[in-house]
């Protein structure tokens, strides 16, 4: 699957801007030199992703350009962390990537209040002592190992208790 945002992020990491949106825009300084240093395979992969980007509707292109600008505005250490996270994501097996994307979609669909609750809970876990963190991870693994019907039963039981 071709990921246009990945192409833009790759271009940004190389210092290559996407093709100018308007004829009066110039590529960033040094872009030609960085392009020339790419292998033929890298150039072709970038061209393919660029073609996929150009095939997108203008509103989607604009959204991706905005995201690229936000990425470029990050401090260098944060940009590096984003790229490392992306590379780690790309190394995951397809099934795990799909699961993560589904979870992220569910997270994005939550109310702002619920997202804030989850962020606070995650921060609490990350700041917890190692022993407590380990206990949480063990509980999470046990939860994941449960059959879906058992998880659903436990959720319903928990909700009933919350209503009391």
What does this 3D model show about the protein?
The protein has two domains: 70 residues, no CATH class; 54 residues. 79% of the residues lie in helices and 0% in strands. It is built from nine helices and no strands. It starts with a helix and ends with a helix. The chain is elongated. The chain is mainly α and 164 residues long.
Topology:
Blueprint: H1 4-14, H2 31-37, H3 40-54, H4 58-73, H5 76-91, H6 94-109, H7 112-127, H8 130-145, H9 148-163
Helix pairs in contact: 1-3, 1-4
Straight-line distance between termini: 48 Å
What value does the average pLDDT take? Answer: 84
Helix content: over 70%
Count, helices = 9
Beta-strand content estimate: under 5%
Query: Shape, please?
Result: elongated
Question: Biggest sheet, in brief?
Answer: none
Beta strands, count: 0
Radius of gyration: 21 Å
Tally of distinct domains: 2
Kindly name the structural category.
mainly alpha
Uncertain segments are: 13-23
Order of helices and strands: HHHHHHHHH
Put the structure in a nutshell.
By secondary structure, the protein is mainly alpha-helical. The chain has helices at residues 4-14, 31-37, 40-54, 58-73, 76-91, 94-109, 112-127, 130-145, 148-163.
Please tag this protein with its features.
164 residues; mainly alpha; single chain; 9 helices
């Amino acid at each position: 699957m071709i990921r246009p945002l990945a192409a833009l992020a790759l271009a940004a990491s190389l210092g290559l801007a996407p093709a100018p949106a308007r004829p009066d825009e110039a590529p960033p300084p040094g872009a030609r030199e960085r392009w020339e240093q790419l292998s033929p395979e890298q150039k072709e992969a970038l061209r393919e992703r660029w073609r996929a980007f150009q095939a997108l509707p203008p509103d989607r292109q604009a959204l991706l350009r905005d995201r690229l600008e936000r990425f470029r505005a990050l401090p260098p250490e944060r940009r590096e962390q984003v790229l490392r996270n992306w590379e780690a994501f790309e190394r995951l097996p397809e099934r795990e990537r799909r699961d993560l994307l589904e979870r992220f979609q569910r997270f994005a669909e939550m109310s702002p209040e619920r997202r804030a609750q989850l962020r606070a809970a995650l921060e609490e876990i990350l700041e917890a002592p190692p022993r407590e963190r380990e206990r949480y991870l063990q509980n999470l693994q046990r939860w994941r190992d449960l059959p879906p019907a058992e998880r659903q039963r436990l959720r319903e039981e928990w909700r009933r208790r919350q209503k009391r």
